[in-house]
Amino acid sequence: MKEKYDVVVVGAGPAGSMAARATARGGARVLMLDKRRELGVPVQCGEALNEGVLKELKIAPDPRWALNKTNAVKLVSPSGIEVRIVEKEVMGKIGYILDRKIFDKHLAILAAKEGADVMVGALATGLMIKDGRVAGVKGVGVGGKFEFFSDIVIAADGVGSRVARWAGLNTALKLVDIESGAQFQMVDIDFESQTMMEFYFGNKIAAGGYAWVFPKGDHMANVGLGVLGGRAEGPAIDYLRAFVEKMPNLRKGKIIEINAGGVPVSGPLERTVKDGLLVVGDAARQVNALTGGGIDHAMRAGDIAGEVAAKAVSEGDTSEKRLMEYEKRWRELMGKRLERYLKAKNVLVSLTDDDLDKLAKALSEVKFEGISLTGMLRVLLKAHPKLLWKLRGLM
Amino acid sequence: MRVDAAMCILCGACSGVCPVNVIEVSSTHVNIQEGCTRCGLCAKVCPVGAIGFGDPRSKRVKRFQRRQA
Ligand SMILES: Cc1cc2nc3c(=O)[nH]c(=O)nc-3n(C[C@H](O)[C@H](O)[C@H](O)COP(=O)(O)OP(=O)(O)OC[C@H]3O[C@@H](n4cnc5c(N)ncnc54)[C@H](O)[C@@H]3O)c2cc1C
Ligand code: SF4
Ligand code: SF4
Hints:
The complex is a heterodimer of chains A (395) and B (69).
Chain A (H helix, E strand, L loop, with lengths): L3 E7 L3 H12 L4 E5 L13 E3 H6 L9 E5 L1 E5 L5 E5 H4 L4 E4 L1 H15 L2 E4 L1 E9 L2 E9 L2 E12 L7 H4 L11 E10 L8 E5 L9 E8 L2 E9 L7 H11 L1 H4 L2 E11 L8 E2 L2 E3 L15 H21 L4 H31 L2 H12 L8 H11 L4 H4 L4
Parallel strand pairs in A: 1-2, 1-11, 2-8, 5-13, 11-18
Antiparallel strand pairs in A: 3-7, 4-7, 5-6, 9-10, 10-11, 12-15, 12-16, 13-14, 14-15, 17-18
Helix pairs in contact in A: 1-4, 1-8, 8-9
Chain B lengths: L1 E2 L9 H5 L5 E3 L4 E3 L8 H5 L5 E2 L3 H13 L1
Antiparallel strand pairs in B: 1-4, 2-3
The structure holds flavin-adenine dinucleotide and iron/sulfur cluster (SF4) (2 copies).
């Protein structure tokens, strides 16, 4: 471990590891640190990921962490109306259910192999500031206090996001902009199909969110839910206990793991760079606000951030202006998409249980083969013109 | 604010909403630093009800028992 690096990455989740890998690949000296003593633990995730991002970032799926393949979705309305979508027909996507304990470590190993230094059990407690600009990271860890100087700090510290705030970017989430999630990994349960992801909607089930059952293997699944802060009438885990209790196929199951966490659903930060600072992943609120999925966006943004950081270092210009290339590129890649998801989320949380039932009924009568998402919405609008004004944000 | 270490899952959600950035979540515990305004947002967002004014554990017991009754 050196005292001075070109780049220090705080956080070794998907965003941080991809950033450290790309920085090292670009030829800069990089250190990635994480407060966790074991990366990937505790899990704060439903562990669902599209295969697309793995292909893009040239990461070969490995059965040690890609536990199960899914290709179908079941949506269940508050009164129990089911809508089934085989993804092949609609979007042609295949998903994995991951084991993030192994996946997160694997991504960190990729960064290390590329040449990044890694320090675990190291909590960042503040930034070093020199002449009013970010100049490194200080903290405390298993080995005692530490200070590392660097030209660039990449804030990849997840939903709790403190690093960017120390640099003067306000990342604090409003209560209405965070989903509070809880999840059980359950065994000895039944579900319809191992390749089908199940989603349950309803304000009693999960106020302002949804519950999920993601099959992980034989009679084993991640069963979880998210509730919108400010909407929920108690902690997420109480909703989850009630959900499991209500479902005959889950009730008899056994819980072998409890996970929880927050999901930022505010839409991305307005600004993700400052002199000597880049913000990536959950810390930058780069999350699909509709589904709460953030792994893929975190990885893509991390990869771009690392590439830009290495270039900026080699050019000797780590100013906000130079680092704006990162912001421009991630917005081009996913900005529009994230905005659309945010709109869709705002529509979804405005729907009553009755609206949701009507939607599900109309959807369950649609033939999905060969129909586009907009086509699907048109059908819906025809069936329920009164829902029109609520859904117009989606068109 | 008080955090019950036996209930807390160290997820960091509380830190994400704290308007004054005084919540430090380490790998073993949550530390509320100086400057807390007692706004209560952290308590509202905690997925497991581990943080609150007063003792979170006793509150959860009461709520749980009320529901059972
Ligand atoms: C209940 C739940 C279910 C979810 N389900 C899904 C899903 O099915 N699919 C999906 O794509 N996404 C899901 N997400 C979202 C997903 O988990 C995140 O978007 C993803 O982990 C973001 O990656 P990241 O690298 O930005 O942050 P993280 O994975 O959170 O990594 C941040 C890292 O920073 C470290 N860190 C934080 N502060 C410090 C500090 N001060 N010093 C040192 N290290 C620090 C942490 O220890 C952590 O390792 C879910 C989230 C929750 C809470
Ligand atoms: S939100 Fe609750 S469980 Fe999560 S770190 Fe804060 S106190 Fe602990
Ligand atoms: S009560 Fe408000 S100010 Fe105090 S720690 Fe919680 S969120 Fe921060």
